[in-house]
TrEMBL record:
PANTHER family: AROM/DEHYDROQUINATE SYNTHASE (PTHR21090), PENTAFUNCTIONAL AROM POLYPEPTIDE (PTHR21090:SF5). 3-phosphoshikimate binds at K30, S31, R35, S189, S190, Q191, S218, E337, H364. It comes from Streptomyces huasconensis. InterPro entries: Enolpyruvate_Tfrase_dom, Enolpyruvate_Tfrase_sf, EPSP_synthase, EPSP_synthase_CS, RNA3'P_cycl/enolpyr_Trfase_a/b. Belongs to the EPSP synthase family. This is 3-phosphoshikimate 1-carboxyvinyltransferase. The active site is at E337. Pathway: Metabolic intermediate biosynthesis; chorismate biosynthesis; chorismate from D-erythrose 4-phosphate and phosphoenolpyruvate: step 6/7. One of its GO terms (molecular function) is 3-phosphoshikimate 1-carboxyvinyltransferase activity. It catalyses: 3-phosphoshikimate + phosphoenolpyruvate = 5-O-(1-carboxyvinyl)-3-phosphoshikimate + phosphate. The keyword Cytoplasm applies. Gene3D superfamilies: Enolpyruvate transferase domain (3.65.10.10). It is found in: Cytoplasm.
Amino acid sequence: MTETPAHTALWPAPHASGAVTATVHVPGSKSVTNRALVLASLAAEPGWLRRPLRSRDTLLMAGALRAMGVGIEETVSSSSSVAGGPDATGEAWRVIPSGLRGPATVDVGNAGTVMRFLPPVAALADGPIHFDGDPRSYERPLTGVIDALRVLGARIDDTSLGSPGALPLTVHGAGALDGGPVEIDASSSSQFVSALLLSGPRFNQGVEVRHVGGPLPSMPHIRMTVDMLRSAGAQVDTPEAGGEPNVWRVTPGALLGRDLTIEPDLSNAQPFLAAALVTGGTVTIPDWPAYTTQPGDALRQIFTEMGGSCELTEQGLVFTGSGSIHGLDVDLSEVGELTPGIAAVAALADSPSTLRGVAHLRLHETDRLAALTKEINELGGDVTETADGLHIRPRPLHGGVFHTYDDHRMATAGAIIGLAVAGVQIENVATTAKTLPDFPELWTGMLGN
Ligand SMILES: O=C(O)C1=C[C@@H](OP(=O)(O)O)[C@@H](O)[C@H](O)C1
Ligand SMILES: C=C(OP(=O)(O)O)C(=O)O
């Protein structure tokens, strides 16, 4: 018997028979884990990552850093016997920095964090580092990072294998990089700015990044970069701290090895919170941080506006749906990665929604604006694309196949709709492995199946 390939397999999305009541332990943040891996690899001493996310994107990051010579040891411990102190329970990664070296090959998969954060690291390596990835990775914007690295002193070959400014490419690391001031247009991805800042302390002159161009998306992710750099001992000047608008400066200096516990991924908490909203139930997410730079924290406000209510308690974030779901008019430019889940809930609401400020989602894992429009409309919905977002007019939906285009957030968006609409089948739910490999189990577990 031949097996159905994962990308065509259909997963019957569970339909909720009533209000969902559950506590869901959401695995670690992709964005925090991959920043922590980069910073720990560039540090002057070993460090620990506790409760890291183990998913395709983070394993690709770890694999790439290992290929450049970094030691990353995975440990699982149930007691405090592991070196590192009394909190050393559960999964932890010990990161042992070393002289970065090539030749090495990096598979970026379709991970924006890997394809953007690692070319600056590769410029510090001794030897050539070749980057390749999924076909979609060739289409995702990278030119801001490549052009900036050239200005800062790196040698990059992006023409012999692919199109200029895109993958595949080779960074010819020279063991060090001059660094200094550079202008970039990061309107297509905040990750360009984060990438240059993360390695900045290791450039000879540090780095001064000046964004020129249209509005910069995903500002919380840049704040996350700055916060994590500062926690690792770096000196960073930012626009927020009274500096020039759109200019970030990182001073050269050694980075500390940290002992960092990774927060749960609040963007991956989204489908579970949505389940409470859609079914009029209650979902608790333990370990929701009181302070965080994660964009998913904005769900407390957005999903409250859509009809729920929430409270941060000792048990975690307790989110309760009222039984009604309201549409909203919202600028999602700061929290673009939440768009698919918000669109799914909006399609089930009692009034229309307008989601704005997310034109750059056309160059995410897939063209998310086109994909959401097509898939919701195939189920009977009424969604139209605008120049920078979506108009969603709720209509009664029916079952059918929800295609995911190798996009983890399309799969979880389809699952949200499936709670309220019988007969929804998610094509390639396995694509959630990009950031949440246990999604199907967590989802059915939440529903008590
Ligand atoms: O830096 C990060 O960890 C991320 C930044 C954002 O990228 P864009 O600014 O390209 O949207 C976000 O959408 C992505 O999921 C993760
Ligand atoms: C846009 C996303 O990922 P990436 O890090 O690949 O850009 C996402 O996770 O929604």
